[in-house]
Amino acid sequence: MVMNQIYSFLLNSKPGGADPVPDLAESSSFTKPTEFTVKLKSDLKWANGHVLDSKDVKFSFDRQTAINDPNGRLRCWPTSSPLPHLMPAPWFSH
What we know:
The protein has about 90 residues and is α+β, with helices and mostly antiparallel strands. It contains two helices and six strands. It starts with a helix and ends with a strand.
């Protein structure tokens, strides 16, 4: 899939599989029935060299929650976003 060649994910699946495996995550598990905890791999960086940490992951989740468009989040990029300061984040690497 093209997205896997461009973006990294907290969890992903191997080609041909459906079971989640760590990508940016070192580990993950349900710690409560409604709480999913992820431990990030160390030394993650954005493409610009800045550190990628849990604050960045939280921002991404908060951003998707804030874009409450019935047609999906991509519908909001970039011109009709209800939150114009929330633009796509730069790619990251690990």
